[in-house]
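Design job #97: recover the sequence.
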């Protein structure tokens, strides 16, 4: 538990009566106790004890509240555009083989459907690396009303369906756990041709 040493030392030095201190010490941490001992070796008589201990406790609580949280800005925001290409089931593919994001980073994905064939409707779904068959099958079950994006723990996020010539954008938080995952189109019959690697870098690699 982080305690501001300088703050604690200043407060402890105000204690004037060493003889009354031991009964109050049980509630303090070891570092505080050592500081008390040090302060007490210079002890004089006085009666500011109770007040001072209350101050120490208050300082300790304050220090806990001041513990810095990791700021949101520490996580990079990534924007990526992926194009869906092809005018037949033989041609369909994404233009990118991989999408890279930092661990826990905000990822804004734009999917552009470049097809001119009205049959070629696509989505893009970010999933766990070993879940492609499970997700494709479950996507088929939930159907076009849910954009073929099933509600599974193996699915990080998915887009809506995009008609030819149109695009969509969505934002999600990349997994904290770095590693290699997948993105895939879960429109029936597309997953085998339309997929790529979703690479999540460890936090250290972001800087
Ligand atoms: Cu597709």
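Job complete. Output follows.
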């Amino acid at each position: 538990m982080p305690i501001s040493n300088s703050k604690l030392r200043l407060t402890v030095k105000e204690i004037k009566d060493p003889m009354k201190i031991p009964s109050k010490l049980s509630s303090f941490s070891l570092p505080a106790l050592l500081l008390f001992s040090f302060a007490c070796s210079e002890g004089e008589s006085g009666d500011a004890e109770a007040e001072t201990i209350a101050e120490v406790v208050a300082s300790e609580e304050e220090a806990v509240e001041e513990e810095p949280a990791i700021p949101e800005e520490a996580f990079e925001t990534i924007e990526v555009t992926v194009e869906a290409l092809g005018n037949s089931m033989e041609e369909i593919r994404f233009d990118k083989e991989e999408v890279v994001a930092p661990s826990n980073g905000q990822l804004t994905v734009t999917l552009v459907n470049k097809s001119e064939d009205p049959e070629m409707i696509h989505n893009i779904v970010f999933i766990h690396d070993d879940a492609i068959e499970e997700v494709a099958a479950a996507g088929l079950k939930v159907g076009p009303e849910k954009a073929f994006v099933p509600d599974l723990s193996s699915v990080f996020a998915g887009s809506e369906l995009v008609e030819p010539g149109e695009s969509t954008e969505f934002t999600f938080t990349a997994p904290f756990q770095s590693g290699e995952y997948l993105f895939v189109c879960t429109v029936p019959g597309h997953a085998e041709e339309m997929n790529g690697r979703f690479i999540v870098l460890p936090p250290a690699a972001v800087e």
